[in-house]
Amino acid sequence: MDFFEKMGETISTRGKEAAQKAKDVADLARLNAQAGQLEGKIKTYYQIIGEKVYQSEKDQDHSGLEAEFDLINDAFAEIGKIRKQISEIKGTKACAECKAEVDIAFPFCPHCGTKFEEESEAESCEAGPEEETCGEEAGEACTEEVCETCEEEACD
Question: Quick check: helix, strand or coil at residue 132?
Fold first, then answer.
């Protein structure tokens, strides 16, 4: 009888694990869809800003963009929260140096060798990102997101 009890427990355990994996996959799909929708909104806001900047440059007036900048900053903050949820579900973290996705248990990045520090206040900061030009190559529209509070990079 012991054999059948162990088999029943194993089947039950495996079923629960499969159900959790299915839930995780569904959660990842939902979160990725939410991030995609917010990225679409950001593109719309960028277009609105571009049109307004054009009109204001034409007349040398630069006011009226505060609301759009706030909407974009709010969307970036929401995307950061969603990506953090995705990482938690996947059991991963992003390397601060090379941005590689790494298992949360690793003490070092297997891609670049950077040592991971204990999660600090800066890493768990919920403040919204601030967009800043990185200036890596002249003429490119390269940007990085930086947390306004802790000044840590918040982008991939």
Answer: strand
The two three-digit tokens of residue 101, written as one number:
């996705």
User: Residue 80: which of 149, 150, 146 has the closest Cα?
Assistant: 146
What φ, ψ does residue 80 adopt, rounded to 5°?
-60, -40
Q: Return the SS3 of 112.
A: coil
Question: In 3D, which of 93, 99, 121, 119 has the Cα closest to residue 111?
Answer: 99
Query: For residue 36, what is the enclosing H or E element?
Result: helix 2-59
pTM across the whole model: 0.48
CB 73 within 8 A of CB 130: yes
Instruction: Map tokens 């939410």 to a residue.
Output: 34
At residue 64 the predicted structure's pLDDT band, cuts being 50, 70 and 90, is confident
- What the block records as the tokens of 85 is 């949820």
